[in-house]
Amino acid sequence: MDAVTHRGQTQVSRETQVLGACPHDCPDTCALVTTVRDGVAVKVQGNPRHPMTDGVLCAKVSRYAERTHHPDRVLTPLRRVGRKGEGRFEPVSWDEALDDIAARLSAIAARDPQAIVPYSYAGTMGLVQGEAMAGRFFHRLGASLLDRTICASAGAEALTYTLGGKLGMRVEGFAQARLILIWGSNSIGSNLHFWRLAQQAKRDGARLVCIDPRRTETAEKCHEHLAILPGTDAALALALMHELVVNDWLDHDYIGRHTLGFDALRERALQWPAERAAQVCGIDAAAIRRLARDYGTTRPAAIRVNYGMQRTRGGGNAVRAVACLPALVGAWRYPGGGLLLSNSSRFPVRRDALQRPDLLAGRPVRTINMSTIGDDLLRPASPDFGPRIEALVVYNSNPVAVAPQSSRVVQGFAREDLFTVVLEHFLTDTADHADYVLPATTQLEHWDIHPSYGHTDVLLNRPAIAPVGESLPNTEFFRRLARRMGFADACFDDDDETLCRTAYGDAVDFDRLLADGFVPLPVPEAPFAAGGFPTPSGRCEFFSERLARQGLDGLPDWLPNHEPAGSDPRHPLAMISPPARNFLNSTFVNVTSLRDIEGTPLLEIHPQDAAARGIVTGQTVRVFNDRGAYHCRAEVSERARPGVVHGLGIWWRKLGPRGTNVNELTSQKLTDIGRAPVFYDCLVEVEAA
Length: 689
Ligand code: SF4
Fold this sequence. Notes:
Strand content: 15-25%
Mean pLDDT: 95
Radius of gyration: 25 Å
Bound molecules: iron/sulfur cluster
Structural class: alpha/beta
Low-confidence stretches: 1-6
Number of helices: 24
Shape: globular
Distance between the termini: 53 Å
């Protein structure tokens, strides 16, 4: 690539190269270089100057130009003409759409603004096109707040109770580890740049152990794979602690100086001999002992946790139990030791300045949990719940495809008396249920600024091309709507570059961001080498007084699933729904080249379970429980362990057979900590269709 010549842009004959950031819900937060020719993005590549990206993108985002200039992009505002869900619309002007939306929201707000609910998540991880102007708008309106729990809140809160925040070791440290536990993560598919560091450590002699119910591509490439049953991670972690205690593989100095509650945790761990955990986890006790010996005697040892483990009832406790391990062995002392789930609390984001919660002006507003949107859309008004939901504004999310228990979600979105506005790139399952679909810009068409949960660099995204069609950045939609609804506050005049500058204020050098596209945060090589955990006690809290005060167990423990394996003879198989490798949640399902690789929705099933049901690879199967049924293609495979099936997600319903996807089967029950959904806590049966 040629040298960057002016504020992040390089001119090469008729081509321009523009620096950006991957917007997707992925820990890697890659730095992008987009090549633009005659106003068209022709290539999106990894920035070779950004150390973590190192010039490499995943297969999905390498197709970002194809996605941006996709023939199915929504190019004008659309107004519904068919029934909800039919996806029949007519084009209208922005003025017509905005006037009508403002009038309808104003009428609802005059009765009770809490009847209006925003619904958004990480369709972009950007701070500006995420919740900046949107937050200002909904706070000014007095709309319901949204509890954004659908992915990470169980693990995030568990980390906060244990370590004091979404904090961990620097990802770069994994290259120096001698033992790496990859726990609940298919890193090759969903954390590619971490995987390169793990490979480097492996070449230097490190041992890699994968803990995952599924034999993923990552598990295949590790030295050992422990295929535990879904929802049993805490039992395994407690048994590891048991072995550490009885063999005295402990760092007593670190425990004494930097932890809280060791004696109580020790007693809890002593209740978990390897044989007990082996029975719960469905693995050999010898494998647990071997892993404990490795973990207790190898320095430095590092754990890469991902969000897979927190998608069951006891998910918060599971993350807490695993997060206690590094302090027990003093792994935090080393740059190559410790644990990483997320480092996002390291980013000094000025959320209040961006989202302006002060605009609520003291009005009490209720909070809707996004993970129970199916039930909540169907709830009548009540003193407990507040007003019936009358309007939804959806942006950066596709809840009809991704929220649990689809039958309830679809029923809610199909309400003819619900006014739904969807900001989107494409006619997704959710957009099909909208009264208005409004064309939104993609990452190549707008400004944004990004934290990361997998590394510790701030990234800036500059627009590479003009908005496609009549699309607008989310910010501009909320700006225009705010004016139409009479919100005269000056904060609605801030442009997007101003919002980018506001995000970090003086904490990050904006000129450097403009020039380079990224700025590393100053994070010590071994951040907890001398303790300093930002918990109330300043220690790693094995025992959490804050949890105990809520009436919860102050120590980590194993909580059986809501739907434990083997508990229901009618539905004897435990199902998890990890992402298909070429999709990212429900994004990219409509990118033809990626969907062609995936082929069709799949259920992986172990040969024994398949044989017992007369199922062969390629056959269409019906996967069902009391919540619904889902049809897909069977793949008889040892990627699945006996008793567990994998419904790979997340297909758009309308692109799958019979207009359903795997969330037809998942439930709206929640986790122990963090009020999060339990996608991997789901019993089913499978039969030939
Ligand atoms: S999805 Fe992840 S790996 Fe792929 S480009 Fe984006 S940040 Fe990088």
